[in-house]
Design goal:
253 residues, alpha/beta, Rossmann fold, seven-stranded parallel β-sheet
Amino acid sequence: MNCKIDYQPATDLLKERIVLVTGAGAGIGRAAALTYARHGATVILLGRTIAKLESTYDAIEEAGGPQPAIFPLNFEGATHSDYQDMAETLYQEFGRLDGILHNAGLLGRITPFEQYNPELWEQVMQVNVNGPVWMTQALLPLLKESADASIILTSSGVGRKGRAYWGAYSVSKFATEGFMEVLADEMENQHPIRVNTLNPGATRTQMRRSAFPGEDPDSLRTPEDILPTYLWLMGPDSRGVNGQKIDAQPPRS
């Protein structure tokens, strides 16, 4: 589906909505959290580095956004019990969720599969697949309390067409696409929960620098540049859009 790079959101697009953003301490996650808050959302900031989450928290407060919340969690070591405890805590605090942006991810290594380290492979799968899957399962009851909930799963171009040397990252994103299709089909006509994948494309982030160290970062869009699509997909203007593979920016020429 085409991106919404020219989307013009209402100032109060996300007013009174409660949105969870994973990987909210840096990069696209931080930018999305700040932007969601600027459009009225109460944002739950999830990540593994408390100092980074606190920085995002402070930036939201300084900008006059609704008071956010911090939920430290590391996907690498999280268990099913941790996700259930998280769901209980959020239910007691907020009573519902109106959206989740699954943004946290691990690149692993760009290397021939023949040389891929099995422990690193499992680590990438844990962070990119298992964590978002089991967190979503635990949080579904909270999402069902919303009149218009949106789940955004971060994908990649290498999760839609495999590419040599991208190993676990590519495979994890194919799994993300498959999970989205299964869950979206289950939610169709049952609950007001829409589930879609969003490919940010080539964006000026630390992960991109790790994957393409020789690339000129000034040739890339910034996280802020691609956020119109993130806003559209999280807000009510995308109501009814379900099971779609969406791009956050046009393909590079």
